[in-house]
Here is the input.
Amino acid sequence: MKNLIQYSHSFKGRVTFTLVAAMLLAAVLSNILIYKFALDSQFQQLRDKLKVIAQTSALMVDADTLMQVPLNRQGASSPPFEKIANTLVRIKKANLPIKYIYTMAKTEQPGMLVFVVDPVPRERFKPGLTSYPGDRYDAARFPEMLKAFDGPIADTKLGSDSWGVFLSGYAPIRDKSGKTVAILGVDMTADEVLKTQTAIRNREWLFFIVIIAVSLLLGVIFSRWIIAPVRKIVRGTQLIAAGDLTHQVEVKGPDELAVLARSFNNMSSNLAQARERLHEYFYNVLQSFVRIIEAKDPYTRGHSERVAEYAAMIAAAMGLPGDRIQTLKEAAILHDIGKLGIDSAILNKEGKLTDEEWKQIRRHPAIGEEILKPILLGEGILAVVRYHHERLDGKGYPDGLTGELINMLAAIVSVADAYDAMTSLRAYRVPMSREAAIEELLKNRGTQFRTDIVDAFITVLKP
Here is the structure.
């Protein structure tokens, strides 16, 4: 239930509800129209059927015999009555929906008719309700019945009288000269009409249920189709919020969502470019700080650039991809940025450092990381700055990491940094030769430095 409530409040839920409601509304309206049309059509078919039955039956009645029926109660026993009654009974049996069939003639009183032949001259429904020859019937309430003397016709709506509720059809009975002498009426009970209407109504309800199911299914399918590009855009905003400014939303088409997606992609690209420019700006600023540090000590001038070049050579020899090599070079340039937080007197001291001074020097990797963290240069660069003095045997600083716990890029910079330090002129010693520095790297391979990194570097250094 909770998930359903959440879904109903979501954008997708609202779209699904709107689509389903719209389809249901259209289906209901069309269903009502179809239902009304079906009922009207069915009612018209019943009227046409009654007119045909009445007209056909009237042609089967002999007008001369009909006129010989005495119009009194004893007339029901006369031979002409029996002959006409038998004909009407055969017609009734041949048309099962017909409940009553009868003949009537005009009287001198307008709107008043008289029964001639009804094949069932007995009391019906209530005592005293009979239809013997000569019984009078007020037809003023049934205009279609009176019009039947001119031609076949049927009631336009259900009519009621003392015998019940019926839908009736009528046709004129003409003699040989074409003169109308009486009319023939056929009655279909309301039950038959309602039965037909109920069948239509049941079909309509079944159709309506099917429409609901189809509307729900199509609503869900169409909502997914509509929501898909929106979800892509939402996902894109989430990725941007997480820092992935390279993400592009793929929504094709000419509609507003596609335009929004293209605008989103342009925004993402612009943000990425702005971040790149900002990154370059801060990187250049930091490089300037590194140069300031090295400018204070003529012996270390150019050290960071050389370490970056050595590190890139090692990475290329190890088969690292170009983007990681670029990250490595940027990190190597900044690897000693933490020395900004170290007293310059300690950094430029020509003699042997005291234990306390060494303790201060060993803080520079952690200081460097703290300097760079707010600038968000990436975890790769931060790892190199913090871990470039770690050793495989755990005797490095600042964290004493061992083995595979040491970031590989940091391990590469460690080798490049050591080599440049050994081959550069320092205030406290002369530079080593390339061969002597290589020998020192080999001696510390597997304890201070990673074997594969040393081997790759030596491969590059040897002519």
